Amino acid sequence: MAAYISVPRDLSRVKTNILMNLTRRHLVCFGAGALVGVPLFFVLKRTGNISLATECG
Question: Which H helix or E strand runs over 12?
Fold first, then answer.
């Protein structure tokens, strides 16, 4: 049984890389994760449990 994959003829919608071979979506998601993760790390680090801070942040 052969599997067929349709390939679009219009390549204008192909995502272009912006910075360090990352697309816009990659950069937005990485930025959102950093926006949540970095402050969370420092808040949890204040409790004195560095292992918990590294696992969660």
Answer: none
